[in-house]
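Hi team,

Filling in the usual template for the complex we talked about on Friday. All components are listed, including any nucleic acid strands or ligand strings, so the model treats them as one assembly.

SUBMITTER: L.P.
PURPOSE: interface mapping
COMPONENTS: three
RESIDUES: 1320
SEQUENCES:
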Amino acid sequence: MTHARSIWNNGVKTGIIGGVAVLIISLVGMVVSFNRRDIIFEFIAMGHTLLLMTGILIGYTAAKKTTATTTMVKCFNAVVASLVTFSFLALLVIIGNAVNLRAILVNASPMLYKALTLGHHDSAAGIFIILGIGLLCGICAAVLYSVPTAVRRITITALCSVVIAGVLQDLLRPVLLAWGPMSVISDFLFAGNGLTAAGALTVILVIAGIMTVWNFKGDDVKENYQHFSGGTQRGIKIGAFVLLACVLLILPQIVGLFLSEVLTIVGLYVLLGLGLNIVVGYAGLLDLGYVAFFAIGSYVTAILTSPELGFFALNFWQALPFAVLVGICFGVLLGIPVLKMRGDYLAIATLGFGEIIRILVLSDALRPWLGGAQGINKIGKPSLMGYEFSQPQEIYYFILAGCLLVVFISMRLKDSRLGRAWMAMREDEDVAQAMGINLVATKLLAFASGAGFSALSGAIFSAKIGSVYPHSFSVFISINIICLIIVGGMGSIPGVIVGAAALVGLPELLREFADYRMFVYGAALVAMMLLRPEGLWPDVRHKMELHKDESVAEEPQVSTAT
Amino acid sequence: MFQRWKDSITPTDIVMWMIGGSMLLMIVWGSVATLVEGKYTGRHWVDFVIFGLAQGSIYALIATGYTMVYGVLRMINFAHGEVFMSGPFTAYYAAAAMYRTDFLDNHPFMALMVIFLVAMSVSTTIAFFLEKVAYRPLRGAPRLIPLITAIGASFFLQYLFRGLYGSGVQAYPVIKVLEGQWMIFGIRILKFQVVVILAAILLMVGLYSFIMLTRVGKAIRAVSEDKEASALMGINVDGMISTTFVIGGMAAGAAGVLYALMFKQVHFFMGFIPGIKAFTAAVLGGIGNIPGAMLGGIFLGLIESVGPSLFLDGLGIPAPYQLKDAIAFTMLVLVLIFRPTGIMGERLAVKKA
Amino acid sequence: MRRLLTILLVFGIIIGLTAMPAVAADKGVVKIRKGEPVHIAYWFVISGANTSLGMDTVRGCEIAIDDFGGKLKGHPVKLSGQDEMCNPEGGQAASSKIASDPSILAAIGSNCSSAATPGAPILWGAGIPTVSPSNTSPTLTAADRGEEFNGYLRTAHNDTIQGAVGAQFAFNKLKIKRAATVHDGSVYAEQLANVFAKTFKELGGTITAQEAVNAGDTDMRPVLTSISTGKPELLYLPIFIAEGGFITRQSKEVAGMEKVKLMGADGIFSPDFYKAAGEAAVGMYHTSPDFTAFGSGYKKFLTAHKDRYGMAPEAPFHAHSYDATMLILNAIDKVAVQHDDGSLTVDRMKLRDQLYATKDFKGLTGTLNCNENGDCADPRIAVYETNIDNVKKGLMPTTPFWKPY
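RESULT (copied from the run log):
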């Protein structure tokens, strides 16, 4: 390898990856569609911001990856990488002007070229504009790389805050507007479909200010905290806990209808996630058909409360125990046939159960009893002392109570004898059996308790929506729950909550970009697992397992053929 | 001998057998009722079987890719359905272009070659990069983690192709040579179905002999037995895993074109359900086992085609074909009750699964 | 710890009880300041298997706004969108999102009736009327639908009308005595199949089979073989493009089904269906709105679509969506009060009443008249026959083959 080549090497290589990335971003239509929104009103649009951020990130990565010692070479690589990245876009515009790519690639439209070249798509100037922007990104990346860490961190956080404020404007504005005097702030920060220039500057200054103060004083605060006595520390913790509880309690009253709706959805998934966490996280049984019990809980509630079918006319509270009970029974019933199956055999068999239940509730054969494709409407809402929970802001409390109950049960189960038996079984079934654990009972209990939580969640779900349709219980729900458990950190209770917030809450918040929700969701799952396989808030034991290689590198390794 | 057998029986087994037995009884009862009713003639049954075989061949082809990946990596490649989709979806544009210029009608075999080539190369490329980007860095991580990446990659690819080619349904052009039907031994069979079944058999035999007879195949088998040991034996483990993905991608691309030729429609979501079905087929046959995947695919295809009529019609259940997936999954569970590692899977039974 | 939790729980319930829901008989007034846009929102299915249905209707809205001039009394028209995912929870979330934005005047949606059931009441709770281009479930505009649906209208026609027209045509015009139906488990298709079967039996015909397939199925030959044993003369398939294409194509390949006549509903009355079904669609019947009222407007729409998106519409409800958007824009135009400072005020209740008062509105799908339950569609459903020219050119037949009136 010649020296000359190795100087270029990293920049070009990273640049090519970046080029493919920006091509994809442009060709799936993200640039054009995001450009309808401005980050800063009449200054910079969202699609452009996305491209700029990618360009800078690529440049920065190239600089970081370069092994050369001199900063000069690293910065050079950053510029090269960004330039290469943007030259892909230049190439796209050139080709797109010559050939009609749109016959195949639906998003390679004149609008895209116009957006990429800032309006100069039919002249050579456009190409230079793209390359110029690439150069600019490279220089930004190089500058970011060469400044001290603290400055870099403050700059990045401040700029990102502006982007986030711009992206979330649709959420922030209604919340601010709902609070009379706050509408002044809203008017100051936002205009048209973006932030105002003054607003953006304010956000940058405020965030940068906070960061700077924290940078200098943060260590002192931490140190002071360390010096407090155990009692005081505990007091602070409890105080924080009470504060959190109060925030949780008044949250829906502040944030309004939509955010409360998001909170209730996240809450439902927390319930589901905690249930599945017992089956997958504690007991290690890969269940891909968890939605079956969710469906059972919903349908039992619907059948018992809806006057539409006319079998029963219980109220919600009377139906709830039946829903949970039937869920548990089905947990055992469906658990028995799969007792002997392991790993992927278990996964596909449970996936099958999920589908069987969905198909059965959809079927014409069971239509007189389960409503078929038309679903069941007019499901009873829960009411307490004559007061009906129907708005998301009210259902929220109901779900919060459910979550607290289930978190509590989960926590107690984890450290119980049963919980330890589950974990032993997860690690090695044969050894667990040899240690005297009754595998049959332990497995069935895991299925049953998981099913019970899921059915509870299903019952609340049907009451919240007021109608059930078979189409709500697709295999994607099961997949989503599995993902949130793993992304949160398997076996960890806070992990489930964080996972639900990240995988269910965030996509709901960013509904605007629904076209690209699944696209980004998929990419984020992959990135997440590559960068942080142990999850966002891992269980201590799991984290140790994952980083076993690092901690016991000295010891002789046992073959780990899993 | 009998004593030992008797000792190993637990109450669980008895309950499981009772569940299995009662399911079997239902099936037999339904079948007898249907046959007694006499709604379907012999010709109908022959048709059902042929339809099932053709559908099953396609499942089998996709399942082969699943099973091979499982063999070497012990992971469910959830994104395999998208590898399957990417090929024919891209090749559609080649097919449509050739149709417009009449090349397709004048030189149908050349055109078919081009379609296969395009589809297989796209699928292969996707499979190759999928492994390199999403799976390779996770080698040795707990088994659920690559599963999540696979799910993520599956969504990503689906919506990537949706973004690139649009969300509509595209229809493959009709290839005149393959239209119509033949009479074979007095049985009416569509030309397509003959082609699909033959192509599937050919590809399977080719794959199987590749795995069993060539050096690379041997190396892949060695890797699937024990990665560390094969590395010590001088086998390039990463290379072999890549090769496996490439072969699986090729099979998926070919299966995709067969599917597109048979059903004519391609869209970004077309890979998902065949993917799940193929996964089911692979497990049914014993995951990790190539002949098992073939058998599982054919079995699944047959059950979907014959099952609803045979099992449910006699019982007077309305709209039996709506329940065909439920029947397929019930049969899967039934098979797994009696053979917890699939029809042909034994090797992996305890240690690795 | 445990006591703390209990206290919190009780505390929570008390707060929940005391929190008063905002109940207002008056739905309020929206003020649009100078330069701010007139904001309307759509809630369609734009992810998952039914994406093409949703995207098609989105394009209908966008073209309608263009045709309207993009401006309303000097204010730009802003269209934002939510994904209702074709299920009730998606509908609930999407409608909550729309309802939480006080700047939104009216909504267009949903695509799927299952999403509208929980969604429409949420929108009306916030005073936002919604016009659906593709919900066809009878319950949504039934007389007993409840007050919470007071803000709900639709430009799609009710299933009961369309299913009955299909049955009358088969029995009275084609003189068919034996028919079979097939649906795909969707709310729309199952309803239509049932209405057809009911009407057909009332007329004196025999239904030989009421089969169903699953969305996503591809191999329809087994189910068609099963249907063929009943020897029907006509198969009614009120389903969507993908499955409809499979059934149409494959029915020509199944012994005993080659001669059976096929009839679909407006769910597959689109050029995309011809692509999916190929020449097997020749001779097929469709029930759909009477296009003779469409006139030149629809041709212009198709040209605009091709120019803007580089392709023809890919699903059946774009014209309904165009009409829904036009209906809303015109209603806003009528009720919006212009002030001297360039601002606009719109009374939500007046907007709703204006929408319900729509009479003789010339839309793409016919002349729209909204009744007191929110059904605005021109109820003139006609039957069309497909010939070889239609399939080859990918153009829908424009003159009805038969009219019930």
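MY TAKE: DSSP finds 13 helices and 17 strands in chain C. Residues 327 and 355 of chain C are 7 Å apart (CA to CA).

Thanks, L.
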